[in-house]
Design brief:
single chain, mainly beta, two-stranded antiparallel ribbon, 3 helices, 49% strand, disordered N terminus
């Protein structure tokens, strides 16, 4: 049986233009700052942001209809303070998330907030709730995807995924919103690097979340790393090399890595340390771009002692891992039009011969009317296959069945959306 899910979002279409300067569009914050300057006022404070509205239609193989429906609007609002003192730049940034419809709770409104100091010689130091250094150096096919951008665009909010077979393009358990110290180097002869330290990955937002704390006694039938697992004393790093000119041949290669001490408050008392890495490349020639990405989550936060396969139908057995992700994308830009195609593959092992995987092909087109307003359309073809152990372990009641193998799911997703920068 095929389910049809339709999501609508009404988004006002607004642009700001300066009639005195060749009718070129200006972002709202640029227009506002220019008016202040014209009236003799100067401020170190600024604001910016974006809004994203979209309609989604999806059909997928399911044993019964899913009654969920959404009104979807998301975006970000940034508040910045920037100052200069004796050759040093300093300031703060606060990012507020704008979400509706697809969010089901458990997310802080303030998504990031940090202080920074920077210089041309020593780079940028950040302290607060912000991305890890490894996250900043992660490369994947989303670097060239336009439109909704496939799995990284909250796809699983609409697609009834099957037992964890779809995971993000980067490291799955990255602590990007936790309190941390980050250093990002300046770029010297094409080289740049970054390091970060996070005391506790569970300290996820300005408003601490107490979810995912599952108390209970150890039970072999539940011997898997559940959502209560987390890590402490996390170190991440990244390094990249860039060469070439943007309007001619150019490329970038990047390596990022994660390490942290694994902990759990759930049924599994001991889990493995976080160990993962990402390697990616971005190649460009004039209007064309090619992006490649590979992420290996290793055995991050897996149980320290795997059970024997014969002991239980549930839980990770010998040979299990936290997932690997492969992706490739091609993008083409002509004037105001952006086109892209991409392919995504992820696989998680639940034992040496049992696994769940996903395959997603994406085609997208976006037209940028100006730097304020864009419109796009995207098509995603989704195929997932889940093993019986993953279904039993995850306890996912939303399992597809297309008649070929229990746990398989197939879907076609169509997205039409608008983006506004302000």
């Amino acid at each position: 049986m095929y389910k049809k899910l339709l999501v609508f979002s009404l988004l006002p279409l607004c642009c700001f233009a300066d009639n005195t300067t060749n009718q070129e569009s200006k972002l709202l914050h640029e227009w506002f700052e220019e008016k202040l300057e014209q009236n003799g006022h100067h401020t170190n404070w600024s604001f910016s942001g974006n809004l994203h509205g979209f309609a989604v239609a999806i059909n997928q193989s399911l044993p019964k209809d899913d009654e969920n429906s959404f009104v979807a609007l998301d975006g970000e609002a940034f508040i910045n303070y920037n100052g200069q003192y004796d050759g040093l730049g300093y300031g703060l940034e606060i990012c507020n998330k704008i979400k509706s419809g697809i969010i089901k709770g458990g997310n802080a409104i303030v998504d990031s907030s940090y202080l920074y100091v920077e210089s041309d010689k020593y780079g940028k130091f950040k302290f607060g709730y912000t991305n890890t250094a490894a996250d900043s150096f992660t490369l994947s096919y989303t670097a060239v995807l336009t439109g909704y951008a496939g799995p990284d665009g909250d796809l699983d909010a609409f697609y009834t995924q099957t037992s964890g077979s779809i995971i993000a393009t980067g490291f799955e358990r990255d602590d990007s919103n936790a309190l941390k110290i980050v250093w990002l180097s300046p770029t010297v002869n094409g080289w740049s690097m970054g390091l970060s330290y996070t005391p506790n990955s569970r300290d996820g937002h300005l408003f601490k979340e107490e979810k995912n704390k599952i108390q209970g006694e150890y039970n072999p039938d539940q011997n898997y790393a559940d959502e209560s697992s987390y890590s402490k004393h996390n170190f991440t790093g990244g390094i990249s090399y860039e060469y070439g000119e943007e309007d001619d041949f150019n490329f970038k290669i990047s390596l990022a890595g994660w390490y942290g001490r694994g902990h759990s408050d759930g049924y599994v008392k001991k889990v493995r340390n976080v160990t993962g890495y990402n390697i990616g490349a971005l190649l460009g020639y004039k209007n064309y771009k090619l992006a490649l990405g590979y992420t290996d989550n290793g055995k991050s936060l897996m149980p320290s002692n795997f059970i024997e396969k014969s002991e239980s139908d549930k839980g990770f057995c010998y040979g299990a891992d936290a997932g690997k992700i492969y992706n490739i994308g091609v993008g083409y830009t002509y004037d105001k039009l952006e086109l892209s195609v991409g392919y995504f593959h992820a696989v998680r092992k639940f034992s040496s011969n049992e696994r769940s995987n996903s395959n997603i092909a994406t085609i997208a087109a976006q037209y940028n009317f100006d730097k304020t307003f864009s419109a796009y359309i995207e098509y995603d073809n989704i195929r997932t296959r889940t093993c019986q152990r993953s279904i039993d372990t995850e306890g996912d009641p939303r399992i597809g069945g297309d008649g070929e193998a229990f746990g398989n799911n197939r879907a076609n997703m169509f997205v039409i959306g608008t983006k506004i920068n302000f």
